[in-house]
Amino acid sequence: MKVAVVNGGKRFQEVCEQVKAGKSPYQFIEFMACPGGCVMGGGQPIMPTVLQAMDTRLTTLYASMKKRLALYNTQKA
Predict the structure, then answer these.
(1) How far is CA 69 from CA 57, 59, 61, in A?
(2) pTM for the full model?
(3) Residue pLDDT, tens place only, 33-53
């Protein structure tokens, strides 16, 4: 099976024309709009360290927002 990954808009038309003309050598083609692929998009490998860092940041952000809201409500009363 021949697979192609096309990213960025420059090659879209070329590959689409090959498919329309029946001259594409590929059986599977993945198109991604972002040059190099979209960050954390479907074509990106999932890295546990990135997910763990995101979880830590979100947990910290949530805790910070909770403290700020409590302080706001205390000052408001």
Answers:
(1) 18, 15, 12
(2) 0.44
(3) 776 666 666 656 666 787 788
